[in-house]
């Protein structure tokens, strides 16, 4: 517990993988858009030729190819829509991360104002206990959690990957 109260937030916590993911999504969208434009140009050219063609066999072949192009365009339109949705979700996630980092920076400044003894007292006030089974940390949330609307003492699990979730109530009433 002592290392938690003396260490500041890691600078690596602010690094974001969204830039490379965003670049990949933009590249995939650009490829799909280029293919869509090429197929659309081919379909437009065939439509112009269809009006000038007097042979019914040639007209039939042109119409058949235009239909095939339309069928090829359908999954491309779907892919572009999916990529746009992924990009929007990525932008929302990046904004949430930025907002969380701002909150953590403010918290870090406030936390730095406390001395080690005050930090330890604050952590003891928040947690009734801490266990470390199988590389995870179980915080037994106590009085402060109950005051914030929690229903009894609860167990919160911080996994090895930095995830954090409440898993069960300590009073044995089962999962949350």
Protein model, in words:
Strand 1 and strand 2 form a beta hairpin. The protein is an alpha+beta fold and 176 residues long. It is rod-shaped and about 95 Å long. The chain has 2 domains: 103 residues; 54 residues, no CATH class. The protein has a 4-stranded antiparallel β-sheet. It contains 5 helices and 4 strands; from the N terminus they run H-H-H-H-E-E-H-E-E. The protein is 64% helix and 12% strand. The N terminus and C terminus are likely disordered.
How is the topology of this model organized?
Layout: H1 2-6, H2 18-52, H3 56-112, H4 116-126, E1 127-131, E2 137-141, H5 143-147, E3 154-158, E4 164-169
Antiparallel strand pairs: 1-2, 2-3, 3-4
Helix pairs in contact: 2-3
Compact description:
The protein is α+β, with helices and mostly antiparallel strands.
* C-alpha end-to-end distance: 26 Å
Q: How is the biggest beta sheet arranged?
A: 4 strands, antiparallel
Shape: rod-shaped
Helix/sheet category = alpha+beta
Poorly predicted residue ranges: 1-6, 141-176
Helix amount: 55-70%
Strand order of the largest sheet: 1-2-3-4
For the structure shown, list the relevant keywords.
176 residues, alpha+beta, 12% strand, 2 domains, disordered C terminus, 64% helix
